[in-house]
Design goal:
- This protein has 529 residues and is α/β, with parallel strands linked by helices.
- The chain has a domain of 292 residues: Periplasmic binding protein-like II (D-Maltodextrin-Binding Protein, domain 2, 3-Layer(aba) Sandwich).
- It is 43% helix and 12% strand.
- It is built from 21 helices and 16 strands.
- The strands form 5 sheets. A 5-stranded mixed β-sheet has the order 2-1-3-12-4. Strands 6-9-5-10 form a 4-stranded mixed β-sheet.
- Helix 19 packs antiparallel against helix 20.
- It is globular, with a radius of gyration of 22 Å.
- The chain starts with 6 loop residues before the first helix and ends with a helix.
- The relative contact order is 0.22.
Length: 529
């Protein structure tokens, strides 16, 4: 594996200064619910970036809009598919039609948008990859990126970037491209967004206000318990806490490589790779989840009922795990149709996964990889096209208040739009996203402060190459999938089952995987200089 000696230093500097190029959400390719699909709608629907960023984007916009029409007539018409995890949208056909109008004179392409609910995402994409089904753009993240690269599922984009996306490459933060390479090659294009992560909970504000809960007392997950008990006792039909496997991110360790495969480092600045399932913090978390399940705090059958979309929109969930960014509660309030408030349970922290947490890849089965790369280029440089994909058709799904601020059309209530995919953190350049009128006009300034406050990981810029252990990782992933939902929601007794879970992963090759991760991290640190 080849490493850039300056990469870690550069990534750290960018994570601290950040200023003008990155905004949005990150992470979770293994989210259980559409709440986490909308979950991460963090930076979501917005654009009020700094003057420099606007000028930069305006420049690249002009290039994209003025340069491509001349070339488009010489291109044969093609249809490109776009796959991302999230809820299906009633008006998707209208959005496709509008995007097709914009794309005809730019790259002579049409699109088909495919939203796959979070609960079925991994299975759906894995089956498509295994069967060799042709498809084009596909969302990927730190949880599955290296595994799919090792499988040969994604196209090498290194040369395509230069050939088909020069505007994108000229304006994107170079650390995003260098820090997500595997063996010196780009297999996905990172979404331009924030460079730090923070975890916590999203709470139903109406219920917080009704019972006058003091959120300043909530510093840990355990601090929520009295509130959950109140909701359980007094709010029939409301789920006190939506149980999911995502809660395991609340232990103080940093994942590197595929999320389902153990092998983490502590958040204390040391770099010894350990199995998180054998740490005291994980044991305490599993104990809490078992107790909460026994107390009836979770939804019915939490190990199998993973999609919280309907409950979120109905306002029948009090508390839910969430990855946080400044103002995410306002964005989700817009999508769910009722007020929310967020509470952080961890400090902002910059990891390698925050570079690769949300990306767009092109399937190796794509029949038109060049045109697919041109579409990615436009999603990073063309504000009108990007906002059509993430916000819908102007006049139908939103109306402009000003150049970069939008609101719902008259007569449409929050949470009732026929197109509100919550996918802005999964597509293109969030600096180009319009800002909803309920959002803070200083949102992007808050993002800069958020990034500047983040503690950097000692391995920022490191990307694990899973190829040497791809067979072991595949076997471990199967074991993980058989146990994780029951363990994380307390529906199976961790004291009885955890030893068997760990033993099966070790028999599948866990110790070899951990040794390989340690070897690569040590080499990265030695070369970082």
């Amino acid at each position: 594996m080849q490493f850039n000696k300056k990469m870690g230093t550069t990534a750290l500097a960018v994570s601290l200064v950040m200023a003008t190029t990155l905004v949005g959400c990150s992470k979770d390719s293994n989210s259980d619910s559409a709440a986490n699909a909308v979950h991460a709608t963090n930076g979501g629907t917005a654009n009020n970036a700094s003057t420099d960023a606007k000028a930069n984007n305006a420049s690249t916009d002009a290039k994209a809009n003025n340069a491509t029409p001349d070339a488009a007539p010489s291109l044969d018409p093609v249809e490109l598919s776009i796959y991302y995890p999230g809820g299906e949208q009633k008006d998707v056909a209208a959005v496709e039609e509008e995007m097709n109008k914009q794309l005809k004179d730019k790259i002579n392409a049409t699109v088909k948008i495919h939203a796959v609910d979070w609960g079925n995402w991994d299975q759906k994409i894995n089956l498509m990859v295994a069967s060799g089904e042709p498809f084009d753009l596909v969302w990927t993240g730190s949880g599955d990126y290296s595994v799919n690269v090792a499988k040969g599922a994604f196209t090498d984009l290194t040369d395509l970037l230069d050939k088909d996306a020069p505007e994108l490459k000229a304006q994107i933060n170079p650390v995003l491209l260098s820090g997500t390479q595997i063996n010196g090659k780009n297999y996905a294009i990172p979404i331009e967004k924030e460079l730090a992560e923070q975890f916590g909970v999203m709470l139903n504000k109406d219920l917080v206000d009704k019972y006058q809960f003091d959120l300043s007392t909530v510093k840990t997950l355990a601090d929520l318990e009295p509130m959950l008990q109140t909701i359980k006792d007094k709010e029939t039909g409301v789920v006190p806490f939506w149980g999911s496997k995502n809660v395991t991110t609340l232990i103080p360790y940093e994942q590197n490589g595929s999320d389902p495969v153990p092998g983490v480092i502590p958040l204390d600045g040391t770099t010894k790779v350990v199995d998180q399932w054998e740490t005291p913090e994980m044991l305490q978390l599993l104990k809490t989840m078992k107790e909460w399940n026994q107390k009836g705090f979770f939804q019915q059958d939490p190990a199998t009922q993973k999609d919280s979309t309907a409950n979120d929109q109905a306002g029948t969930v009090f508390a839910e795990w969430s990855q946080l960014t400044p103002g995410k509660d306002k964005v989700l309030s817009q999508g769910w149709g009722h007020p929310l408030v967020q509470v952080a349970l961890s400090e902002p922290y910059t990891t390698s996964a925050d570079l690769s947490g949300s990306m767009t890849a092109i399937s190796r089965t794509s029949k038109n990889p060049d045109r697919a790369m041109m579409l990615i280029n436009l999603l990073h440089t063309d504000a009108q096209l990007l906002n059509t994909l993430v916000n819908g058709v102007e006049g139908k799904h939103f109306v402009k208040v000003s150049d970069n601020v939008i609101k719902l059309p008259d007569g449409v209530q929050a949470g009732q739009s026929a197109y509100a995919p919550g996918n802005s953190w999964q597509e293109g350049n969030q600096f180009l996203d319009y800002l909803w009128d309920n959002e803070d006009s200083q949102k992007w300034e808050a993002y800069k402060a958020f990034n500047a406050s983040a503690k950097p990981s000692p391995i920022v810029g490191f990307t694990f190459n899973a190829d040497p252990v791809k067979n072991e990782e595949a076997a471990i992933n199967n074991v993980y999938n058989a146990y994780i939902d029951g363990l994380a929601t307390g529906t199976i007794d961790y004291e009885k089952v955890l030893p068997d879970f760990v033993d099966k992963m070790k028999k599948a090759g866990l110790e070899k995987v951990i040794a390989e991760r340690q070897k690569q991290i040590d080499a990265f640190l030695a070369n970082k200089g």
